Amino acid sequence: MIVxxxxxxxxxxxxxxxxxxxxxxxxEIFGFLGxxxxxxxxxxxxxxxxxxxxxxxAWIGGFDVVSQPQExxxxxxxxxxxLSLDRELTVWEVMExxxxxxxxxxxERRKRIAELLDYxxxxxxxxxxxxxxxxxxxxxxxxxxxxxxxxxxxxxDEPTVGLDAQARRRIWELIRRLNSEGATIFxxxxxxxxxxALCHRVGIIHRGRLIALGSPLELRLxxxxxxxxxxxxxxxxxxxxxxxxxxxxxxQSLPPEVKMIVVRDSNLEDVFVxxxxxxxxxxxxxxx
Amino acid sequence: xxxILKDSYSVWWADLRILKSLWQRFLITSLTSxxxxxxxxxxxxxxGIEIGGVSYxxxxxxxIIALTAMNASFNGAGMKLNVDRLFYKCFDELLMxxxxxxxxxxxxxxxxxxxxxxxxxxxxxxxxxxxSTRITPLFGLTLLLTCxxxxxxxxxxxxxxxxHQDMATFSSLILTPMTFLGGTFFSLRDLPGWLKMILHLxxxxxxxxxxxxxxxxxxxxxxxxxxxxxFGIAFFLVCLSVLKRSSV
Lengths: 288, 248
Ligand SMILES: Nc1ncnc2c1ncn2[C@@H]1O[C@H](COP(=O)(O)OP(=O)(O)OP(=O)(O)O)[C@@H](O)[C@H]1O
Ligand SMILES: [Mg+2]
Description:
heterodimer, A: Rossmann fold, 6-stranded mixed sheet, 28% strand, globular, B: two-stranded antiparallel ribbon, 2% strand, binds adenosine-5'-triphosphate, binds magnesium ion
């Protein structure tokens, strides 16, 4: 569904995306996991034709994003990281504009908009202006809008950023439901739980480079499914083991001066830390 | 072709919805300054003055119509697009829709054209009530062309602007000089040759000349009409090329 080959985007001396080779298969939920500034949004902007790559290629559904933008634009629906709504329009008008832009006829429009607003739980807000809605509602409008032309591919740039736990679960549910109805989903996130809970496969991106790729389980298996945290000389040390039993055996073998021992399942955060030496949610991560 | 027009209408449609909910307020606020110009220059300063055989008030009304069309069109198209691009960020959604750049430019200009026509027609109605201004088909055509030209200019400014401040800068560097030197309030005929030449680089000068000639029943300055048309086409083409090169 999405293929990129040596995709690269350079801003001045920042390499926002570097030599990205990626394949997102039809029907999967693919997660792009990385810290702030890793290059996630830049990748989405290239895929959605808003930004031109410096070099390399990208295809959506077989169409080149640079040379066949009009074909590509019909394939995807996108929810951008930032709000991108005309606040002077009502919810219904936002939906109707998008439906018109995608060439839906008036009867089809009415049916589809009603259906989608229902789907995202905003049927009662249809006549309210965007400016009056809460952040979570705005985000749901954006999701509904992205779906209007039945896209086969949905691109979601941090779909749950800034939402409370309940709103986040609601969006997750929606994503799963869409996927079960056949849509391919490409989402970016810097939330570990989100990637683990939703994605069939995860690509970890760091400083514009893809540094790991696989299902959450595969990625953890490479490290070990069990983690042991110990406190020694005021520093936390991590060790990974293929199983809980081996982890426990290791703990029992430790000398008594080692304190605060935790045995737990490993997670994608551990994978990320091991690969890069830093945490995913550690904030700004530009090159240099 | 049909698709281009249909898509332009779709883009226009959203801005029409917004205008629909506030058109009265829009008309009143946009009519304030032309009416003030009329009072200050037409009745105040110009009482008893004649220019080229007509009373100053008859002279100044077509000029104020051109000026009003310019401001309402430029701002009507430019301000909203500027906000859409830099503040609401919803302009990206247009760029990601399967419609042509042509439709985007045209659609985003049409709201300026409509706003320009609304305000200038309202002012024209006032003018008709207090003077013997004539309206002819050529008058209407020039007014329409004026609105298109300055709407494209507004769209162009908004596409180039990197901040809201840029729009204000553009206004004060380009529109304000045209307001006072664009042939609205005085005749350019008796100015020194070099100044006249510079002022003729202003599209508003040509628009005022055409409107005034029709309103006063003089022979129509086709050369000015063509210059105005050329400005309109040029702004439109530059808009297109800016939009095509805008993806960074
Ligand atoms: N228009 C631009 N001009 C210059 N540099 C840019 C531009 N857009 C992005 N960058 C740089 O490219 C790098 C990648 O940014 P990007 O927005 O893709 O990161 P991200 O992974 O989406 O981060 P976040 O989690 O904060 O959204 C950053 O270093 C950023 O500063
Ligand atoms: Mg981002």
